[in-house]
Amino acid sequence: MFRPRNKKKKNTRRGFHFSICPGKKTGKHYLKDTMEFSWMITAFLGFVLIYLIYWYLLKKLSFWQERGVPCVDSVPFIGSIGDVIRGKKNYIQLVADFHKRFKNEKYFGMYMLQSPVLVIRDPDLITQFLVKDFSYFQDRNVDVDETIDVMSAGLVNLTGNKWRILRHKMTPAFTSGKMKLMFKDVKDCCDEAVLVLKGMRGEDVELRSFLFKVVINIVGIIAFGIKVNAFNINGEKENAFLENSKNFLKPNLMLHIKAVVALVNPKIRDFFKYRLVDDRINNFFPKLTKDLMDYRERTGEKRNDFLQTLLDHKHKELELAKETSVNGQITQTSDTDVHDGGEPEDRELLDHLKNIKYNQTSAVFSDYIIASQTFLFISAGSDTTASIISFALHELASNKDIQRRLQNEIDSVLSNQELTYDALKKMTYMDQIIYEVLRQRPGSGVLTRVCTQDYKMPGTDLVIPKGCVINISLLALHMDPEYFPDPEKFNPDRFKNMDEIPKNIFYPFGAGPRICIAMRLAMLQMKVFLATLLSSYDLILSEKTQLPIKISSQSLTQHVVGGLWVRFEPREIR
Questions:
Q1: Residue 25, Cα to own-chain centre: how many angstroms?
Q2: In 364-505, where does DSSP find H-type helix?
Q3: Is residue 433 a contact partner of residue 523, using CB atoms and an 8 Å limit?
Q4: What does the alpha-carbon distance between residue 378 and residue 216 come to, in Å, rounded to a whole number?
Q5: How far apart are CA 540 and CA 443, in angstroms?
Q6: Which of 317, 337, 529, 549 has the most neighbouring CB atoms within 10 Å?
Q7: For the chain, what percentages of helix, strand and coil (3-state, to nearest 5) are there?
Q8: Are 381 and 245 in contact (CB under 8 A)?
Q9: What is each CA distance from 62 to 71, 403, 440, 527, in whole angstroms?
């Protein structure tokens, strides 16, 4: 019997069937199709996300261009500081190189990571920022979190009202009258260093490491009131004070990068909670300071050092709190401060206090703040001072005529008297030499300020937003042939007449109310050491010094690769 062939039933379901792979579909195929489709969607979304991030980063790097400010070429994530991150240059040299590129501009922009930085070139604008409009640029750095980085809360890094209070309280500790009291301790440390050289019998000496020990001995006495014995004269094991001080100042690329990041983007620092100071240092110096304070409290001992000055301020705060409020709160303003008149040379330091007003409602001299201010002598002063003296000795060894002229001045001044504070004032050629070193090798190669409120650039429509970082390259200004002809030549006679120095150009210790508070102490240490040393020794340049000298790219300051080496030979009195 004939039966008709079964016909395939038509799918009567309405709808649309989509298949990536033609042919018969199994569960395995549909899974494959779904995975491939999901991968395509994921890839597309990833591409869109990457594009949006890249666009955002590029947008951030258009900040200066949108405002018509000439700008350094930059790339996402690292901005303009690629050479710093790669270890090719330190930040001081990088900004100086950028400064030269824009020689026809009053200012230009750059980026540290994604954050905009404005570099000021014009001398009149520099004065405007540092002095006349100081209220807009009163902070040198981003605020520090002393709960994370205890020893970073020194005066240099503090901001706002806390900085203003401490600046007022600490300034009288650095007047000429105080320097006279410190003179003997400085002189004793320098005499000890010259005796150490006598025992070395003509050996080549690496200047920075030697002078660092000289300065650390001075810091120990005048800041902490302790004898450090950095030269290990008694054959003792190297002490913890010297070891921790050296470790803090050792050139370190990672520290260099972390410091730059913390400066321009404190949110990154706060998020990762990283410190610029090693844990051992954060533990050692606060404990040392606390032990010294407890000892003085217990015994009633008082010393003529910086720690005692801070301790006295702490006691005054406690007394004031009892007198002014039943709740133990302080009520004090800058108008209640009384500062000694000082000598004429102190006027620059003290007059700035008129423009620094504060209101104090609580105690600021905590144990940690005291430890941080005392540690500041090490972190901001010891390495810088040792560096400047090192460069001075190198130049004197390289220029025999200048060395001989300085020795003649020292011999003339000291012919009928011992070395005293007043005798140093008569050594004017020595001042010229130090200023010339500071011109070529400024202790702070870049001045940094942070805009504390929106600021309209004079004569323009440019508005600098609150929080923007301002840089001024002292190295570039000091080495500009427009202001100092033949800048590479070491010529102290440039400073024979200070009135002839171009205005608003030479800032060896900064300018304005944030000028270096310890500049007179630094000059005292340098002059006492030079006078003491050159009275007894001639300087001979060692072949160990690599010429031309090269500055380390991994240092926040001007460390010389291979070091500066000099041989000291006893003088034949002429």
A1: 71
A2: 367-376, 383-398, 400-413, 421-425, 428-440, 474-478
A3: no
A4: 7
A5: 25
A6: 529
A7: 55, 10, 40
A8: no
A9: 9, 52, 34, 49
Q: Is 504 helix (H, G, I), strand (E, B) or coil?
A: coil
442 near 475, Cβ under 8 Å? yes
For residue range 310-368, list pLDDT tens digits in order: 999 999 888 887 777 655 667 777 766 655 556 777 777 788 787 788 888 788 898 88
Q: How many CB atoms lie within 10 A of CB 565?
A: 21
- Residue 19's pLDDT band (boundaries 50, 70, 90)? very low
Contact present, 396 and 433 (Cβ < 8 Å) = yes
pTM equals 0.85
**552 close to 559: Cβ distance less than 8 angstroms:** yes
Residue 482 makes CB contacts below 8 A (sequence gap 6+) with none
Sign of the torsion formed by the C-alpha atoms of 392, 398, 402 and 407: positive
Beta-sheet pairing, 115-120 with 469-473 = parallel
DSSP 97-136: HHHHHTTT-SEEEEEETTEEEEEE--HHHHHIIIIITGGG
Amino acid type, 156: V
Structure tokens at 213: 């020990």
**Residue 15 pLDDT:** 44
165-to-99, 217, 228, 360, 524 alpha-carbon distances in Å: 35, 29, 31, 7, 26
Residues linked to residue 120 through DSSP beta bridges, in sequence order: 107
Inter-residue contact 139 to 163 (CB < 8 Å): yes
Which of 556, 527, 348 is CA-nearest to residue 435? 527
Question: Domains (ranges, CATH) in the chain?
Answer: 123-570 (1.10.630.10)
Which residue from 219, 147, 170, 161 is spatially nearest to 368, judged by alpha carbons?
147
Check residue 16 and give its pLDDT. 41
Q: How many CA atoms lie within 13 A of 181 on its CB side?
A: 14
Q: What digits encode the pLDDT tens for the residues 102-131?
A: 999 999 999 987 789 999 999 999 999 999
